[in-house]
Specification:
The protein is α+β, with helices and mostly antiparallel strands and 146 residues long. The protein is built from four helices and seven strands. The strands form two sheets. It has a four-stranded antiparallel β-sheet.
Amino acid sequence: MRLTRLSVFLLFLFPAAAEAADFCIDVHSKKGWQRLSLPDGKISRVSFKGGWSVINGIYAPVGPRGYSGKDAKSLGPLYGYKFDQSYSFGEMLVRDQAGRIIPFAEFAALAVNAPDPSGTYSFRINDKDVALWDNAGAIRVCISMR
């Protein structure tokens, strides 16, 4: 009985914890744009885990910032296979409701300050559709809202 009362008391003391929700998507490297809808609210955190490769077995998996250094240089001649030339091979791209495309790192930084982030967002690896077949892996993106 005492434990039940304590639980109820804590629920009223910390109601924000009961209202928080995570919205997650596994963004697969072998697929094009993949959609996630967010409700009204405020984004409190954007996180990720996992990795992917643009050429499985040749390049090690990377996170949402894509390839850099030696690997980026060796991928250079394949630049025509990038979905968006402005960003690195393997970088995660995010398309907002207005159709703007930005890298995941920029999305994550801006999202927590967005006054109204509700709507549908799309995510993908920076690799053209014709080149997705030799990719491997996925990155799980979670957006915490309150």
